Amino acid sequence: MRKSTQELLEQLKKYPVFDLTKVARNVKTEEIYLKLLVHRLARKKVIQSIERNKYTMYKDPWVVASHLIWPSYISSWAALRYHNLTEQLPGTIEVVTSKKRRKRELSFQGMKIKFIITKPRLVFGFAKILSEEREIFVAEPEKALLDAALFKSMSFSEISEIVISNLPRLQKEKLIAYLIKVGNKSLIKRFGFVLDYAGKDYYGRLQKYVDHNYIALDYSLPRTGKKNIKWKVIDNVAKRRIS
């Protein structure tokens, strides 16, 4: 016995994102009629098309972004805004995942959703929260900062300002532990320098990861500035801090 459209929608609302396979579990009919039904619901705007064979009944871009692929989590600007570490409203929701996707960007409800593909070992440091009674996954503040630098989705000048302005709110031990877990020497030197500048010296913990190669503190700016012998960085942000 076929379920009514209303019963079908009640079933589909259990899924933040669904495809024809999930619809088929709730409606026993031929594929051609199944596609027609979904097309009709989308045309009436009862459901929304996200991308090819991906639909939702939710309007929250965060819910959709968090359920398009698994494992994944929202990070960088969007996560930092969620944690109130920045007042800037992001126009892009960056989703970190270890799963390959052919399409790296899409738009939903006026928001761009961008997928950052990385190694499975780097998919950590996020938490489950509730939004519109649905689970979404967001990076912890410390991991959001590291991701923003690691994937260069923000300038390091911006990251430095956020770290310095919110230092009491950040879990410094967790930040150091995550730096070591990621294991990127350039990342360690940059954050080590910024924490040192802010009055938190972790050189003893991080010294073995500091090699002899000098790197620019901000990868988005020219390599001009005073060399910091301790952290082996070229402080190309100093003039901006003064101004």
Description:
With 243 residues, the protein is an alpha+beta fold. It contains eleven helices and eleven strands. It is 39% helix and 20% strand. The strands form four sheets. A four-stranded mixed sheet has the order 3-4-6-5, sandwiched between helices. A three-stranded mixed sheet has the order 9-11-10, with helices on one face. The longest helix has 13 residues, at 31-43. The chain starts with a helix and ends with a helix.
Give a nutshell description of this structure.
With 243 residues, the chain is an alpha+beta fold.
Chart the SSEs and their pairings.
Elements: H1 5-12, H2 20-26, H3 31-43, E1 48-51, E2 54-56, H4 61-67, E3 72-75, H5 76-82, E4 92-97, E5 105-108, E6 111-117, E7 126-131, E8 134-139, H6 141-150, H7 156-165, H8 172-182, H9 185-197, H10 203-206, E9 215-216, E10 226-228, E11 233-235, H11 238-242
Parallel strand pairs: 4-6, 9-11
Antiparallel strand pairs: 1-2, 3-4, 5-6, 7-8, 10-11
Helix pairs in contact: 5-6, 7-9
What are the defining features of this structure?
alpha+beta, 4-stranded mixed β-sheet, 3-stranded mixed β-sheet, 243 residues, 3 domains, 11 helices, Arc Repressor Mutant, subunit A, elongated
Spell the H/E element sequence: HHHEEHEHEEEEEHHHHHEEEH
What level of helicity do the residues show? 25-40%
Give the overall form: elongated
* Total of DSSP H or I helical runs spanning 4+ residues: 11
- The overall number of domains is 3
Structural class: alpha+beta
Query: Numbering strands along the chain, what is their spatial order in the largest sheet?
Result: 3-4-6-5
- The quaternary structure here is single chain
Mean pLDDT score: 93
Largest sheet geometry? 4 strands, mixed
Radius of gyration: 22 Å
